[in-house]
Amino acid sequence: ALLDLSGVHQVKGTWMGSTTLPCTYVPSEGFTEQALSWSVERDSSTSTIFRRDDSGDHIFLSNFRDRVSVPKHSPGNASLRIEKLEMPDSGHYTCQVIWRSTNNSLITREVTTILKIVKVAATKPIIRAGELGLTVPAGASTSLTCEASGSPPISYRWFRSIPGGKVPLQSSGAELVWDSLRPSDSGMYFCEAANR
């Protein structure tokens, strides 16, 4: 069990979101990490994405540049973080670590994780009231916040009910803010969340 890499068999990532592919080991006395690398296999061809060795960190695939990172100062953690996930990122990812022992022999271990990218529709949003709640004195300031989950980016639209329908409000963010409430602000408010 010495220096065995642990990870998980499969990770689901959300399109446009970010994910971490775990790869960890327990550092052991007498063994120094020489190199660690991450490679990906897609359409039966394997390419190295990331390599860390004496000369530093190297990212080999341009479509992963600025999107991948491996923790710097946490011994035993070789996990790969991928940001802004794209549909073609799906594939088999292999973490390989090489150690040098005190008698100069090399030990290599690897672990493979399947990454599956999924598109997730925006969920039905929930509305959270500000600190004062939903019954607020005139002149006070308050807000309503709309929250939904799903593949980013999520956009929000606010509506207010009027007799016979709903009228769109100027606010387009997740938060609807009033600096000084008037009695005429009373009413029923709706939030709509959408993503691509």
TrEMBL record:
<protein>
    <submittedName>
        <fullName>VSIG4 protein</fullName>
    </submittedName>
</protein>
<dbReference type="InterPro" id="IPR013783">
    <property type="entry name" value="Ig-like_fold"/>
</dbReference>
<feature type="domain" description="Ig-like">
    <location>
        <begin position="17"/>
        <end position="112"/>
    </location>
</feature>
<dbReference type="GO" id="GO:0001851">
    <property type="term" value="F:complement component C3b binding"/>
</dbReference>
<feature type="domain" description="Ig-like">
    <location>
        <begin position="125"/>
        <end position="196"/>
    </location>
</feature>
<dbReference type="InterPro" id="IPR013106">
    <property type="entry name" value="Ig_V-set"/>
</dbReference>
<dbReference type="InterPro" id="IPR039939">
    <property type="entry name" value="VSIG4"/>
</dbReference>
<dbReference type="GO" id="GO:0043031">
    <property type="term" value="P:negative regulation of macrophage activation"/>
</dbReference>
<dbReference type="InterPro" id="IPR003598">
    <property type="entry name" value="Ig_sub2"/>
</dbReference>
<dbReference type="Pfam" id="PF13927">
    <property type="entry name" value="Ig_3"/>
</dbReference>
<dbReference type="InterPro" id="IPR036179">
    <property type="entry name" value="Ig-like_dom_sf"/>
</dbReference>
<dbReference type="GO" id="GO:0042130">
    <property type="term" value="P:negative regulation of T cell proliferation"/>
</dbReference>
<dbReference type="Pfam" id="PF07686">
    <property type="entry name" value="V-set"/>
</dbReference>
<dbReference type="GO" id="GO:0032703">
    <property type="term" value="P:negative regulation of interleukin-2 production"/>
</dbReference>
<dbReference type="GO" id="GO:0045957">
    <property type="term" value="P:negative regulation of complement activation, alternative pathway"/>
</dbReference>
<dbReference type="InterPro" id="IPR003599">
    <property type="entry name" value="Ig_sub"/>
</dbReference>
<dbReference type="InterPro" id="IPR007110">
    <property type="entry name" value="Ig-like_dom"/>
</dbReference>
